[in-house]
Write a structure and sequence with these properties.
Distance between the termini: 29 Å
Strand content: over 45%
Structural class: mainly beta
Largest sheet: 5 strands, mixed
Helix content: under 10%
Order of helices and strands: EEEEEEEEE
């Protein structure tokens, strides 16, 4: 699993990919993106079903599920917020594998 340490990301949105672990040494937490389930309508398509997104994370060994209706959760005095998914497909042919996506998150101490 790719991982990297970053003490400067608290309060700033950061990007994370499938099976990547981000560690904040200064505040002693780590977060791993375990899975993304997405059904996002490309901008050039007419979709009947509304966009859906579900992400599974592990924060300090605790499982967290977020989605486009429940974008934040507080765990161990930290608020984890889903900010965005990248890339957002512009055309039907641009739909990518899950490994091509990244998720923007924000972690705030509460």
């Amino acid at each position: 699993f790719p991982s990297h340490d970053n003490a400067g990301i608290l309060h700033e949105p950061f990007e994370i990919r499938i099976n990547e672990t981000i560690r904040n040494i200064e505040d002693n937490w780590n977060i791993t993106l375990k899975d993304i389930s997405t059904n996002i309508c490309p901008k050039d398509a007419m979709c009947i079903i509304a966009d859906s997104l579900a992400i599974k994370l592990t924060f300090n060994n605790e499982d967290i599920n977020l989605n486009n209706f429940n974008k934040e959760k507080t765990v161990n005095n930290y608020n984890i917020t889903f900010v965005d998914i990248n890339p957002n497909p512009l055309k039907t042919r641009d739909i990518l594998n899950l490994s091509d996506y990244s998720i923007s998150l924000k972690v705030l101490k509460v």
